[in-house]
Design goal:
Elements (H helix, E strand, L loop, with lengths): L2 H31 L6 H26 L1
Helix pairs in contact: 1-2
Length: 66
């Protein structure tokens, strides 16, 4: 996996994780507290972390198998 593919994978995974995290925090706040508030700080932190780690793990697994 080259750098370009790694960057694309990271961007896609980060975007998906960000959207899911925002939806979950919004719905949790709406259901539990009655106010739909987005927690941008934790959503971005989580998205960036998984966006870096998951493509790296996928690359590592391909090296182990292949």
């Amino acid at each position: 996996m080259n750098i370009k593919q790694y960057a694309v994978d990271s961007a896609v995974i980060s975007s998906i994780v960000l959207l899911v995290n925002l939806a979950v925090t919004f719905l949790y706040g709406l259901i539990v507290h009655g106010t739909g508030v987005l927690n941008w700080e934790s959503a971005f932190g989580f998205a960036i972390s998984l966006g870096i780690i998951l493509p790296w793990i996928r690359r590592y697994e391909k090296k182990q198998v292949g």
